Amino acid sequence: MEKRVTFKGWLLPLLLIAPQLVISGVFFFYPAGEAVWQSLFIPDPFGLSMQYVGLGNFEYLLSDPYYRASFLTTAVFSTLVTLVSMIPALFLAVLADRLVKGAGAYRTMLIWPYAVAPAVAGVLWLFMFNTRIGIVAWYLGLLGYDWNYVLNQNEAMGLVVVASSWGRISYNFLFYFAALQAVPKSVIEAAAIDGARFWRRFFTIVLPLLSPTTFFLLVVNIVYAFFETFGVIHTITSGGPQQATTILVYKVYADGFVGQDLGSSAAQSVILLLVVGLLTVLQFKFIEKRVHY
Amino acid sequence: MANASTPLKEPPPGMVEKRGRGLWFTHALMILGVLVIFFPIWLAFVASTVPQAAITHPPMPLLPGDQFLTNYKRALFSGVNVPVATMLLNSLVMAMGIAVGKIAISILSAFAIVYFRFPGRNFFFWLIFITLMLPVEVRIVPTYQVIAGFGMLNSYSGLILPLIASATATFLFRQFFLTVPDELAEAARVDGARPMRFFVDILLPMSRTNIAALFVILFIYGWNQYLWPLLITTDPSMNTVVMGIKQMFPSGDDIADWPVIMATSILAMIPPVIVVISMQKLFIRGLVDSEK
Question: What transmembrane ranges does the database entry give (chain A) (predicted)?
Fold first, then answer.
């Protein structure tokens, strides 16, 4: 889409666009280029010189069992976060949609967790499940279950998944609720007249009509799980136990800042750039499609 | 998602919604859902109002205690490493800086891209587009080096600038400008108005709602940042509140000062929650729009 009516001149528009270009150049393109460049080198132990290794960092990474494990961890983590945040959200949205009165009040209550930062959410869930003082851990102990996410890898994964999904339920709820409100009531009523019960109507009519929203939410929730859950992981498990919750973004941080392995960290950044690029294309394809219907 | 901002439809005659027992059941489920979702926040609030001993001897109470003022005063004015009031101020500066900065640079560049034909326009457009979704998380090490090179560690500009390099807002404004009727620009041109006149007198006022909606989203985005402040604020007095909470946990086996930590958590969530709740309509609109 283009404007037919435009203003003349070229200096003014260049000046207008300059601040964004300068900021993007200095803080985006230069660092991204630097990441690509650094990924081709290994610094010597004293940090005095860099040795060119070509794709060595990448080869090393892809054969590194820890890195592969981190890929798998990220896949499991993001799948679980997506499911745990979307299914309850859809359920609550369907409930809210059936209420003529009061849906707005519930929505106001359900928005809260979205505003809570992932890192703060991490602290809240850590507090409930803390092995020494956490109230949920204590009641689990009463039931005879020895909860210890500090040692048990699955429990650690479960805890970071729930803590990461919690705020996203609000987010997904808002989108599903808006989409449900937009489903034409006449279609539903026609089905009801034909004798379709609620669940049948839901699976044959409502769910297919929601599929654009579902697809969109799938992509954004995966992006969220990949990149924005750092705060949760860092506050609750710091990637442990035995790297069981070290997702890719956490590993970039751990290797780059804690381990000071700049070449490897840069190579990981480049791989992540590719992943995000892929997801962006996916999302953009979807947006394009939606604009046209 | 364009339908999200349209008003709710009139309730249709009762064919498909629940009545009687079913209705109460739906309400009951909904309330249960809200309670479950709300529980972590409630528990944090309770913990921020009781003495440390009530927490370290589990199970902790489920109703607020009488230490509200003591705990919050302790958090705000002494904290653990640095008073929480200082961290709140840092968060406010960072969130405002990101929101205002991003809106300012994006609305200008969107104006240039939509309303002018100039050499390199398409190229610049694509340059900006590439930055669309790449979060700071994937380029942390080199970005950190750039900031360190500029001597911007432990500074507000270091906290803010790298995070305003993103194209989402530019895109949103571009989409909006494209829907502005051509006649307005035409009339302005016929009247001999300069482009900036048109921008200030017509385009800016028309964008008011978009700016406000975007502001809500960006404020929360800035306030809730974690990794970036964690890296570049080594000086506790520059910590933001969201990243500062983790720093309040003692290393080793010491017992954490839970009442103060939980009071800080509550303080850290209050500003974004207020923004979201009070501007709910704008917020939902902004959210739904900015993901378009």
Answer: 12-30, 71-95, 116-140, 160-181, 202-227, 266-287
